Amino acid sequence: MSVASHPVGLPTGPESAAGSAAGRISAIETRVVSARYRRPFQISSGISTELVSLVVAIHTADGAIGIGETSPMTAYTGETLAGVTAAIEEYLAPALIGRDPLDRAGAHVVMDTVLRGQQVAKAGLDIALYDLAGRLSGWPVHALLGGSIRERVQTTWVVGLGTLDEMAAEAAQYAAKGFRHLKVKGGHGPAKDLELIRAVRAVIPADAELCLDANEGYDATTALPYLAKMTDAGLTLLEQPLPRWDLAGLVRLRERLDVRVMVDESMHSLHDALEIARRGAADVLNIKILKVGGLHRALQIANVAEAAGLAVKVGSMPELGVATLAAVHLAAAVPGATVAADLVGPLMVDEDPLAPSVFADCDGWIDVPKRPGLGHDV
Questions:
Q1: Residue 323 and residue 160: Cα distance in Å, rounded?
Q2: Is the pTM of this model over 0.90?
Q3: Are the beta carbons of 197 and 176 closer than 8 angstroms?
Q4: Between helices 119-137 and 104-114, what is the axis angle to 10°?
Q5: What are phi and psi of 196, to 5 degrees?
Q6: Tens digit of pLDDT for each residue in 29-58?
Q7: Residues 232-255: tens digit of each pLDDT
């Protein structure tokens, strides 16, 4: 638990109905929760046997509470649970104590002032602030993001690395449950991934979209002929085929391939999104709430995508139920979120301690919660 007086020299935020002394942030708590993956989740950079998250609770002096979640997938972000916890408890939480919880933009200014980077840590606090604001106002989070243009949000199913037969069988299994957007992990070589695309396409319905996430595993020169064959074999979306820094290579691939290209690792900030759009390096931005620092930053990036005519996928690290609900609200509110979201964390584990009933018996669609805040019971 982190409790501190407000640091000298930082703004306290404007007064509001929640901004009186009784309504200001009084305490911030963290606790670790975890759940085992049904099948170890493997991508090209590493493997995880359990999904570990940090739950963040923001309290006000008059007894209101907002709950957030963040989940550092070390193989993907390089951040650790211990580091994220320390960032919150030693720097970010003390900076937020005494502030108006409704001043979410101001909270980001303060957090960025006291600690550079650490977007995964900031996201947990941001999500808790949105949950708290929703509970105080009586509005669901999607209303705070501009409203809901979707009553239900489509989710993909993500197939982690395994043998060819295992991955094809898992894709077929979830296609049979109703999922019409399947994403398979690749990145161990374009020749192997071409075999994978052919095997999966052969066992899923013709109307199912098929995405390959290479997780930066290729180089533009050697991968190009294989990627062209993958497109011919029925690949409909290609995610992060090249290293995050190789925007020029992504531009060249887009010019030569008849498939949409999506960036993930290349985009960690609003500035990254602007540069990707300016250079024409992608057709789709994968906006992961934890990766970019929370819902506030994610919505800013979605606005850049809309201005540039780019589509959006609301992605996942993955996370458990609270942060996944935040993704549901974002996907419901963003007009350009036309690519199926990755809302699979609660579906990939044996028993999610944070998952609300909205994720039960998922058939490829998630109903958007209408209750105040995120709509969870944590």
A1: 20
A2: yes
A3: no
A4: 160
A5: -65, -45
A6: 999 999 999 888 877 667 788 999 999 999
A7: 999 999 999 999 999 999 999 999
